[in-house]
């Protein structure tokens, strides 16, 4: 496969996944904001949305103080924000258009229609009327895109690069979400000793779980009260949790092996080592050194992995 084609497929998948992840964060934060809470906690929630995407400084420079409606507008339909849902869906569509001949008709039409319909929704006031419905629509379209890809595409190199892009992006987002949400509890999290009571209790952790469709999964796996340690364990180490770091890295390594070439041995080795660290890791060991330190290192390793994949397979930026 031409490296340029692989590059477009990889980024098409990453942008579609990023749009869904942004919709998930905004949806949960919007729903949580409707609960009784102090102004400081509400402000912290919206600041967290910007922090996850590393957009706090850009937002502050353009809008100043954090206002919920402005944050939502900035993260949903701001064309100057490269991580807004509008920008991500446009980028996914443009990458798909560049490799139209490699995709099945169903995959192309799903991606193209998603962009066209969202562009219309962004202009007709849908976000102001019913933000939750907009976020649900984005999540549904992302699910549809993944389903159509798995159901209609030949499982060749094109398919593998799409899957690598999806799960690398998902791993990055889950780690960022955990880091920001646990940072709201304290600077670094070492376990139960320093838990706060009050507002950072059931609703905080259930919101974290709902943002990754993990609330019902948590109840099924642990069957008890929601605790920060178990939330971290579920979203980091459980390979049967679809959006966990372990599950994402299992998928990345599986598909990297299928597209391996002479240049990719070191990238595959680093991916396999990261996968092994998660497969054989224990949550008490992770918390003993601090969750923030672990997640920061994980994000650095995922970033290096993305650079390695670009160097070995894709067109240089």
What does it look like?
The chain has 317 residues and is mainly alpha-helical. The chain contains 16 helices and no strands. The chain is globular and about 55 Å long.
What's the quick description here?
The chain is mostly helical. The protein contains 16 helices and no strands. Helix 1 packs antiparallel against helix 8, helix 2 packs antiparallel against helix 9 and helix 14 packs antiparallel against helix 16.
What is the strand and helix layout of this fold?
Elements: H1 3-33, H2 39-52, H3 56-63, H4 68-77, H5 85-98, H6 105-123, H7 126-129, H8 131-152, H9 157-183, H10 202-210, H11 215-222, H12 228-236, H13 245-258, H14 265-279, H15 283-289, H16 291-313
Helix pairs in contact: 1-2, 1-5, 1-8, 1-9, 1-10, 2-9, 5-6, 6-8, 9-12, 9-13, 9-16, 13-14, 14-16
How much of the sequence is in beta strands? under 5%
Question: Given the C-alpha coordinates, what overall shape results?
Answer: globular
Spell out the helices and strands N to C. HHHHHHHHHHHHHHHH
Mean pLDDT: 89
Q: What structural category do the secondary elements indicate? A: mainly alpha
Radius of gyration: 19 Å
- Helix % is over 70%
Number of helices: 16
CA-to-CA gap between the ends?
18 Å
Main sheet makeup = none
Give start-end ranges of low-pLDDT stretches: none
Number of strands: 0
Task: Provide keyphrases for this structure.
mainly alpha
